[in-house]
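hey m, so remember when u said the tokens were messed up on ur end? i reran from scratch. heres the input so u can diff it against urs
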Amino acid sequence: MRNTDYFRNKNVTVVGLARSGLSCANLLYSIGAKVSVTDIQDNAVTRLNAAKLKSKEIKFELGRHSPDFIQGRDLIVVSPGVNNTSEPVLLAQRLKIPIISEIEVGWILCPATIIAITGSNGKTTVTTLIAKVLEAAKRNVFVCGNIGNPFCAELDKMKETDFVSLEVSSFQLERIQRFKAKVAVILNFSRNHLDRHKDMQEYLNAKKRIFMNQDRNDYLILNEDDPIVRELAKEANSVVAYFKKTESLNPNQAAVLAVSRILGIDEGLSLKVLREFKGIPHRMEYVGEIENVKFINDSKATTAEATAWALENISGRAILIAGGKDKGIDYGVIAHLARNKVKNLILIGEAAGRIASTLGSVIEFDKVDTLEEAVNLAFKKAQRGDCVLLSPMCSSFDMFKDYEDRGDIFKKIVYDLAKKRNIDI
């Protein structure tokens, strides 16, 4: 690691004790910072993570944010789930204490070359594919950020010759100060996260921060087919390159190829990786087939655009299970596809009412209370050749720990359904 002296003997409070907060707190303690942790949640997850803190010298509190955990600190580090209106953020601002994100901590300490990927859709797939291309080219690479391990959990293993494929969200970018990726990628921009950002401009401003510190020694890769993203080139100080969808490459694949060219990786090798890629868990993941009805887990689809992509890429018609925590998005994006591709819509979660009011005039729908009820009802409504598609268009936090938990529960329900019928999938 580099720059460890920057944090030594600093009084630091980490706000949030999920995966990234835990990793950050332990890392900062290991390099000599005086660390405290505060989390408004007091549940099984935060209690388990509190037990994983490296030392009893790391003070922590659960279920509240006490002023004592903010006052007198040199630095506040916020986890991605902590919004700008939370008590510790507001108090730190009043006390003029610097506030940074976990990825800023990672960047300060990281000796490796960082490739950072953001966008409204496709981040996880592109981040994964970039890593696979680098691995195929015999480069050592770490996959971090919103997927893989938290950035701070991997830093002590990194060397200057290594690479980091880093998925970054608008939440993480809000609180960077000097963070600078060697290669920054913006995949697309569409209505999303308006439960966190006050409007689309604020959301876009957060995304743009990914290149704000870049210079002529760095690269910014933009989607030429997305007019909002394409125009960002005018604001960049870095070298700009573009990617676009072709007959043989979808936008995600084109973005990966653009990165591989900048890194000097053989194009034939990159294309081979793209051809052989089988997808990521929870993104159009084939679960199995019961009585000629396919089940597909697309729990990673937390936007309407992601669900539209899923509907475009399934064969036949779907019983669509959707809903969850509403992010203020436009569910009408899928209306034109729903008319032709969705036989029935089954809704769960907080957003069920809003989705119903948007799409109820287009397709038949039912509301149920649990995912298990949704799967069973979907199977009952399905006919031979149909598919049951979990593609929620929403985040999972109203009913599940995260999208992975939601997807795993969906798969277990399907496996149990098959077992009852003595079908092995």
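this time it looks ok to me. Residues 294 and 387 are 4 Å apart (CA to CA). if urs says something different then somethings off w ur setup not the seq
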